[in-house]
Design brief:
- This protein is mainly α and 267 residues long.
- The chain has one domain (8-266).
- 85% of the residues lie in helices and 0% in strands.
């Protein structure tokens, strides 16, 4: 832990986002050995990740954004509100754009060719969702470097772990459908892990932006919070509770409590 804490926030972010990408790759690797993955385990992991991300969105991102905005002499709620709204709308707009593309493809025909195109759009959808997640990790580590109230190294690490856990089923969710569409195991794995390659890039952008542009830090923190909450509400919660509501709910509660306790106790 000491060696990690002595690294620059850029290196910390890079290591953390490489971890989240590697977990995606492990999930995608399941296509080599299995046709399906235990649904109960995946739903529990998704629930836990959703709890971690919701708690982190408030205690590690949104609440500090309000405090910093106030300390900068700004209207305390204005920039965080704009950032939160912008983050959520960015995810919603990306989803709607992809939904329209999928609808147009499916209306043309139901051929195997279009089915493969829909699978590739799934890869694009997962990739877009990974951008705000990577940025959130970068913002979290950048906030620790700036000694932002409520930002701790352990909470930033736990946020990366939570995002990594929910990346595991995402990797499988991309690679397994591609395999069923006729792609080779190798190609299915390649596209599955590639969907998370944007996270290190987005993470580096986030940490550099936080360090170099403190005046817009409230906006960046709130943007990451809004994007993450939107991903949780639109994707993680519906997916995890579809067939295993109880296990997903327990996972959510545990994830939320763990993140809350760490943020409050160590913040």
């Amino acid at each position: 832990m000491d060696w990690f804490s002595n690294l620059t926030p850029i290196l910390q972010t890079l290591i953390a986002t490489i971890f989240t990408w590697s977990v995606t790759a492990i999930g995608a690797l399941f296509v080599i050995f299995f046709k399906e993955i235990n649904k109960k385990l995946l739903d529990s992991m998704l629930g836990f990740s959703a709890g971690v991300m919701i708690a982190a969105s408030f205690w590690s991102l949104l609440s500090p954004a309000i405090d910093i905005s106030h300390s900068l002499g700004q209207i305390a709620w204005l920039m965080p509100a704009i950032g939160f709204l912008s983050g959520g709308l960015s995810v919603i707009c990306a989803d709607k754009f992809l939904d329209k593309m999928l609808l147009k493809r499916s209306e043309k025909s139901l051929s195997i060719h279009d089915s493969k195109r829909r699978s590739m759009l799934l890869v694009t959808a997962i990739t877009l969702h990974n951008i705000p997640e990577g940025m959130a990790i970068g913002v979290a580590f950048g906030s620790v470097a700036l000694n932002i109230p409520g930002a701790t190294l352990l909470s930033a690490i736990l946020l990366a772990v939570g995002i990594g856990l929910q990346n595991f089923p995402e990797g499988a969710a991309v690679s397994l459908p591609l395999r069923r569409e006729g792609y080779s195991r190798k190609k299915s794995f390649f596209y599955g892990q590639a969907s998370a390659l944007v996270e290190p890039i987005a993470g580096l952008i986030g940490v550099v932006a936080v360090i170099t542009m403190r005046s817009i830090l409230p906006f960046l923190l709130a943007f990451a919070a809004g994007a993450m909450i939107c991903v949780v509400v639109a994707e993680l919660v519906p997916e995890s509770t579809r067939t295993n509501k109880g296990k997903a709910t327990v996972g959510f509660i545990i994830g939320f409590l763990v993140m809350m306790i760490l943020d409050v106790a160590l913040g």
